[in-house]
Amino acid sequence: MQLVIVESPAKAKTIEKYLGSDYRVLASYGHVRDLPPKDGSVDPDQNFAMEWENYADKARQLKAIADEAKKADRLILATDPDREGEAISWHVQEVLKNRKALPDKVERVTFNAITKPAILHAMQNPRELDTDLIDAYRARRALDYLVGFTLSPVLWRKLPGAKSAGRVQSVALRLIVGREREIEAFKPQEYWSVTADMEQDGTPFVARLVQWEGKKLDRLSIGNEGDATRAKADVEAGRFQVQSVETKPATRNPPPPFTTSTLQQEAARKLGFSADHTMRIAQQLYEDGAITYMRTDGVQMDGSAISAARKAVADRYDASYVPDKPRVYQSKAKNAQEAHEAIRPTDFSRDHAGSGDHGRLYDLIWKRALASQMASARMERTTIDMADGTGRHVLRATGQVVLFPGYLALYEEGQDDSQDEEARRLPRLREGDAPAKKEVKAEQHFTQPPPRFSEASLVKRMEELGIGRPSTYASIIKTLKDRAYVRVEKNRFFAEESGRLVTAFLERFFEKYVGYDYTAELEEELDDVSGGRAQWQAVLDAFWRDFKPRTSEVMEQQPSAITAELDQFLAPYLFPERADGADPRLCPNCGEGKLALRGGRFGAFIACSNYPECKYTRRFAQGGEGAGEGSGPETLGQDPETGLPVERKSGRFGPYIQLGEGKDAKRASIPKDVDLDLEWALKLLSLPRTIGNHPETGEPITASIGRYGPYLAHAGKYARLTSTSDVFETGMNAAVVKLAEAAAGGGRAARGTASREPLKILGKHPRTEAEIKLMEGRYGPYVTDGETNATIPKTVDKDQLTLEEAAQLIDARAAAAPARKKPAKKAPAKKAATKTATSKTAAEKKPAAKKAPARKAAAKPKSDA
């Protein structure tokens, strides 16, 4: 018997189908072991010896693999064809070796697609494990561990509120923060454009002023309304004749097939997918045998695939769309060694695969790969210059006409494939023609700051700088989101305060290690390890020799000294110069103290140097013109009952109101939907509000505002309210109804009850006559017949699900479910005297061993560098 090990059960099932009965295929479910998250897992003093630990949730799978391995004549390691795949195979081999279950014959096979020809060819061409790739994996894993477990404790102790830092993700975060600084420092510049709507032979077109008063204009030449008005008047007064017509042929070549990074970029631009989501969907398409391996920086395709693509083009279009020679692309990556072929369909005659997001991503991959073997697009670009009688003012019109679409008939990179090239068509004009001038416009514009990074542009920039590697981009971005160092709004990254502070700390105290050039050079050294050109311990030693002393040096500094350094480093951001020349650090509350950065239990904030006499504070990152305005205490009035002042203040967690001082002071946060005045302040300070006693239980019902917004409370049960005003206006009847609805929805308000309604009634089960409903559940859509619930696979679009497909899902789920046991009858109580030697009382039974917390059974994501 021959044992084959792969990562996922879906992959195992497909491969076992292609192999004979002599093969047994098992899945490892991703990595089977890792460095335990504790000090000492990597020992620099022992030549970077690494202590590995098996995942607790993989015990059952490892036992199954070991049991089969003991019976096998040959072990075939068939994990993915990259560094991580090589590492998984190595870990499996090491675990079996430690358990003395390793067969005498161990071989490694790789394939770029899960198709029968590719699998059979791989089995006939085995090799040994690639020690260079394994060493590169160990070097990266050790580096990530050493940075995380050495630098993160420094952050925790010296920068309250910071979570952690990473070798590559901190550099990616620096890119986002750096762009935020560029935007804040940007000063918009006014400029004007002058254009003329013109027409020739019934065809309208637009021309712009490119020369005025004998001077050539660039974009910023006309900088004020007065000049723009004069230029507009000159154009309106002039009679413009065609001075020159220049036509140039142009050719556009198709882009190469997708690599990992270009797939992530294009899926973000065209489909709105995150990098993480793109890689999950691509992984499933690969395991389904629809596409080739999706972690690659190679752009070339196999010769047989090129032939298949050219045939598909000829079948779909005509011979003119097939270039004379096959197109061969060369990778620009310095070390594209991990999975050489580009991402492409395994079968070019298959233009659809899956549905929903799977179908959309497959369509993108199929079009891009097919277009890469299509003819170039041929165009004609025309430039027409028109001068007035003086020759001092010139208008220019440009246009482009597609003469032959070529690959553009199928695919256009980086756009939504909706742009109409014909809209740019210019009328046929000759020298001396005088087209009609319909209207002249002078429009004001302002220069724009550089845009914030999207996932596509961030991945592109990281690739340009050589930071990280394509297989790690998705996990790097996900880590930044998970740690709340960044937030995403309208598909753009915004740096959070915590992200800005961590970046400032690293730039000030670990500048070298968040440097773009240094990070790229280290990546090249790791690539040299994978290529057999460098020794992995030597690379680690060179890094550790400088890094460890630096962290020790920073750790010895007092937190107050760290904060003082950051105060100076961040001064241009926190305390920018004011337009009126006033001191930006002057406290707006007392007018005497100086503002400075302070560190607290929950993070950094700005405070007055006159504390405790002056208690002015504001959140970190509230710099800029007018930052102090409204940030200090503002007296709203006096409480009529106590005579104490009611003040509006701003703290580390945002604005709040306060009644009184000291320990007895009452405080309340200010909701966003409140236009605050004294009346509202007193209402908020009076909370919680007692509505009355519940008519059934006699227990009080209260209304208040909590961490998640306004709510009702009764006897430990809660119901959400929609607005702050509801807290003060909801009466007894409405409160009882809302609490009842929340209880019926499992603790959720009306939203919970709505979710119980079916999305669609599909009809009666063709075999049982039970009504089948399509439902939306907590973990996604499912179908049910009232007895059995069946989850809808991710590769199936719920909106396209048929009655028969739903019935099959329910039948399969019912067949797979374990038989229900009848409830056991309660045994009669035994007398102590009847205890026998063969039976034990509950007190004598050995208590069950405490189970380790279960890990997810899904395959572990690739290393996040």
TrEMBL record:
Gene3D superfamilies: 3.40.50.140, Bacterial Topoisomerase I, domain 1 (3.30.65.10), Topoisomerase I, domain 2 (1.10.460.10), Topoisomerase I, domain 3 (2.70.20.10), Topoisomerase I, domain 4 (1.10.290.10). Transmembrane segments: none annotated. The keyword Magnesium applies. GO terms for biological process: DNA topological change. Its EC number is 5.6.2.1. The active site is at residue 293. GO terms for cellular component: chromosome. Residues 1-114 form the Toprim domain. Pfam families: Topoisom_bac (PF01131), Toprim (PF01751), Toprim_C_rpt (PF13368), Zn_ribbon_Top1 (PF01396). It is an enzyme of class 5 (isomerase). GO terms for molecular function: DNA binding; DNA topoisomerase type I (single strand cut, ATP-independent) activity; zinc ion binding. This is DNA topoisomerase 1. It comes from Sphingomonas pseudosanguinis. The gene is topA.
